[in-house]
Amino acid sequence: MLPFKLVYSEKYFLPIGEHVFRADKFRLIRERLLQQHAADESDFIVPDLASESDVTLVHSPHYVNKLMEGGLSAREELQMEIPYSPQVVDAFMLHTGGSILAAERALEDGVCMNMGGGFHHAFPDHGEGFCMINDFAVAIRVMQKRGKIRRAMTVDCDVHQGNGTAFIFGNSALKPNVLPSSSAPTLASVSGPGTSRANGADVFTISLHQEHNYPFVKPASSIDVNLPDGCGDTEYLAWLDNALSSGLRQFDPELICYVAGADPFSEDQLGGLNLTIEGLKQRDELVFRAARTRNIPVMTTYAGGYANHVEDTVTIHCNTVLAAAEVYRTATSDRPR
Ligand SMILES: [Zn+2]
After folding, report:
1. CA of 261 to the centre of ligand 1 (A)
2. How far is ligand 1, taken at its centre, from the CA of residue 65, in Å?
3. Where does 1-91 show beta strands of DSSP type E?
4. For residue 301, what are the β-bridge partners?
5. Could you tell me the distance, in angstroms and rounded to a whole number, from the CA of residue 301 to the centre of ligand 1?
6. 211 near 228, Cβ under 8 Å?
7. Percent of the chain having pLDDT more than 90?
8. Residue 221 Cα distances to 53, 87, 134, angstroms
9. Within 13 Å, how many C-alpha atoms sit on residue 138's CB side?
């Protein structure tokens, strides 16, 4: 039995037809975990659909109405890059309910994983890049509304920048510093020590991503790490460590939302970084250790993963569970309750 819960529903499957986004990965991950006895049936909990009132904490009522009524224009559907259907909307509402449940359980148990979600390209008034509803942004706003937390941090390690998340939680009153573009990775923090953009903000956003990749317009996160093409394990892990340390010096979150995309993998069809499967597991361990040592609850979502062989995507996502199990099995006795 795992020292935390896995949020999953067989209805996480997205009926989007033949697509680079393998919507059966959620089921395959669950099956692999059970086959390998890394998890048992009692580790899984089933979410409810998010409510429209939850979703409108982040998304505009106009956009949510269009989703519910089938009123998206052809251009809006094209921008989403997945076909619209009421069944797809239901699946996204369920992934969002899953992130709400994962946030709740993380606050109780220290850690919880949504075996889906991570739809970080969804904006308040539109979806894009396979993302219809920004599930974990909704989960953060729901936790705040219920008075369970005031401050949260997103740590987005998908190969693509978390543009929707950055936009949703961005503070338009404070213009970020725009650092000159460089061939070396840039840690584009919008604030120096003592002048934190986090002052007054309630959500601090970190994104590590390939600079020369979708999305081509990148709204500023609190910290953006723009990685060069072909970046490998050692360099990536050093930048992640740097970003986490910097973020956690500037900001004191009561919940971390970790977006554990599998697409920084060297053999990903939509990514241009060069991480190994082992390097990605070390990435997961680094995030969980950073949260654990500071006693910050962490919830995880899966986001992207488009490896040439779907088995590799499944392995990378399963390893996130194994990494958390290794970190939290040793942590349960010394974590203050
Ligand atoms: Zn991605």
Report:
1. 6
2. 27
3. 5-7, 44-45
4. 259
5. 12
6. yes
7. 86
8. 26, 32, 15
9. 34
Structure tokens at 320: 């996130």
94, two tokens: 């369920």
Average pLDDT over residues 12-21: 90
Mean pLDDT for the chain? 91
Could you identify the residue written with the tokens 């996480």?
Answer: 12
Q: Tell me the CA–centroid distance for residue 55 and ligand 1, in Å.
A: 22
pLDDT value of residue 102: 98
Band (pLDDT 50/70/90 cuts) for residue 182 is: very low
Measure 245 CA to ligand 1 centroid, in angstroms: 23
Q: Which amino acid type is present at position 157? A: C
Higher pLDDT, 127 or 190: 127
pLDDT band at 307 (very low <50, low <70, confident <90, very high): very high
Task: Quote the ligand 1 centre to 264 CA distance (angstroms).
Answer: 8
In contact, 316 and 277? CB cutoff 8 Å: yes
Ligand 1 centroid from CA 238, angstroms:
20
Average pLDDT over residues 1-30: 94
| Distance in Å, CA 172 to ligand 1 centroid | 25
Q: 83 is written with which tokens? A: 């076909």
Quote the ligand 1 centre to 209 CA distance (angstroms): 9
Please tell me the distance between residue 226's alpha carbon and the centre of ligand 1 in angstroms: 14
Give the tokens for residue 141. 């706003």
